[in-house]
Protein 1
Amino acid sequence: MAHQITLIPGDGIGPEVAEATVRAVEATGAAIDWERVTAAPGELDEVFASLEVTRVGLKGPTATPIAGGHQSINVALRKKLGLYTNFRPVRMLPGLKTRFHDLPLNLAIFRENTEDLYSGLEHEVVPGVVESLKVITHNASMKIARSAFEWSRRESRRKVTAIHKANIMKLSDGLFLKCCREVASHYPQIQYTELIVDNACMQLVMRPEQFDVLVLPNLYGDIISDLAAGLVGGLGIVPGANIGDHHAVFEAVHGTAPDIAGKGLANPTALMQSAVLMLFHLGERDAAARLEQAIYQVYAENRHLTGDVGGKASTSEFTSAVIGHL
Ligand code: ATP
């Protein structure tokens, strides 16, 4: 029976990379019925109704206005569906020349996805003074720590690093660390270390190969994800998965990239690799592995790459090259 999947093309380059990804997934032969829905600010009923049935979504980036305007659609989805794990595997692609291409980078980022400074609780105390509430709970911190360690155990990973600023935010980041330590104590075979976020940034740029699995509260996870994407060739590459107990929504790390939207220049690799994660999640292991290998082959050949990774190909030329290898 075909898998029903909610497809949210999104804004900016979203529809272009979503269309490319649908073409590639269809070429794997995996039986999928796409239910296309639009995510508009304040009008997410259709999205939630579809995900209620399908339980699995593939999503392009959605625009979030800066300093004002509507709440982020991503934040709304993650909170409402309890998608507490944001998983972002950051890997070097074969043949792609980056500053670090000699290093076998293979990081896994576990970003808490529902709270922290994304609580959206901000107010003006008096004119000229505003407060934003950083909410850290035992419950959400335990969940993300368990996700990170459980995945690491399954995948035989050797080290988990918790990233924090508990020297300054002693209570909130302190609670996050306490939870990570508690979970770590149940996985004696996995090395557990902690690093303050500013130092983590420096270490990631100077010696990224020392890292394996990272677990972070929401905001540090957002920032470190973009930094890590930069190590392996940029935002056009890195996939992501938002996972809860009942639903999963797969989406790239990148945003709407308005500078290149509508020009056929966007790199669909990040969403295609998100679709690889989705196919594994659906149990379509063969289709997932073949799509992943097809993407790797196009990179290894280095002839049909998009501009962001040093090539000249359009979104659709890259996609056809991937399909050619399926
Ligand atoms: P947001 O604020 O919406 O999360 P972001 O900070 O992740 O967005 P983006 O808009 O995704 O930022 O991307 C920053 C820049 O990276 C873009 O302007 C674009 O030049 C480049 N970029 C991002 N995604 C892609 C892609 N898929 N293909 C090519 N270039 C990309």
Protein 2
Amino acid sequence: MSVKTMEDLFVATLKDIYYAEKQILKALPGMVSKADNSELKKALETHRAETEGQVERLEKVFKLIKVPARGKKCDAIEGIIDEAKEHMDEIDDERVLDAGIISSAQAVEHYEICRYGTLVEWAKDLGHADAAKLLAENLKEEHHADTLLTEIARGSVNKTAEQAA
Ligand code: FE
Ligand code: FE
Ligand code: FE
Ligand code: ZN
């Protein structure tokens, strides 16, 4: 698809995050099972369930703008997820692994926050108020997940990880 207008760019970016969310949905169970800290495990599992709802919201957005819900390969999320897997394979100590999982999960959240931040603004500008609302709900959940991960890192995981030798 060639991008000529802002509407085209909006749709292309929507397809990017739709693809990304589906990849994230596939990657999260592996991160949940590798996480050792119970708070971290729970936060990742909660966000995995939340992500299912995010995919549904995106499908509603596609419907609102009358475009078939189809993803477009996002190389950025593939790279972020590849790094996460690489970390999980190379870190032996489960305390250090937890800190690594948080950093990988936050890289994912930040990618999503940046995409949704843009999409919300463009949806508003293009007169898609209902779509903007749905996208803002996803953005809010990503922010919440990111903040919670920071709290878990600061609260226990990072200090515990520092004890690994
Ligand atoms: Fe998401
Ligand atoms: Fe992308
Ligand atoms: Fe997320
Ligand atoms: Zn952050």
